[in-house]
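Schema walkthrough. Field components (list of strings):
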Amino acid sequence: DTGVSQDPRHKITKRGQNVTFRCDPISEHNRLYWYRQTLGQGPEFLTYFQNEAQLEKSRLLSDRFSAERPKGSFSTLEIQRTEQGDSAMYLCASSNRAGGQGTQYFGPGTRLLVL
Amino acid sequence: AQKVTQAQTEISVVEKEDVTLDCVYETRDTTYYLFWYKQPPSGELVFLIRRNSFDEQNEISGRYSWNFQKSTSSFNFTITASQVVDSAVYFCALSENTGRRALTFGSGTRLQVQP
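Field assembly_structure (string):
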């Protein structure tokens, strides 16, 4: 049974550059979530997909952030014109039911450092 | 608005001691779900337990046990006979049945088990 995978695991970039992260959910899961975690804090919700539809976006998701899930399988999260404040761990999770009715299983995360 | 509070920032115990991690939550929903996740140094969030608001039975899984009390809005986690491998950050999380479907996490409790 393959879990949630994320790529890359680490990314170092310079301020102002664009970065894109990929998440592959558990194959039978139609719900996919993105979270951001900064040092010493719990993960914070960014956005949520059911199949290919993006159903919810957090106020944390500024205009520089965009997420897609074009075929309802893998998802990408892009950050444009990165800022030092974007440095964080970006976590992806998937589930097979909405909200708390389905357990969210997390990937290993992508750790972003913006210099 | 939903909120999860983990007041204990860091706990240090000696191996074989019992330890309880506290979690207090706030929600307006009558139906909600509570979770505990473990985050070892590798960074991946590992699911431990999910409990819905209608099930107040305590649960035991090996050395782990959970105490859910709606009257005090608490969902505490106890590790019996702690081991060095239990060293990690533990997060409590809440998901409501309506509105936001994502998880709201507490800030986590770092547990250090000394040999």
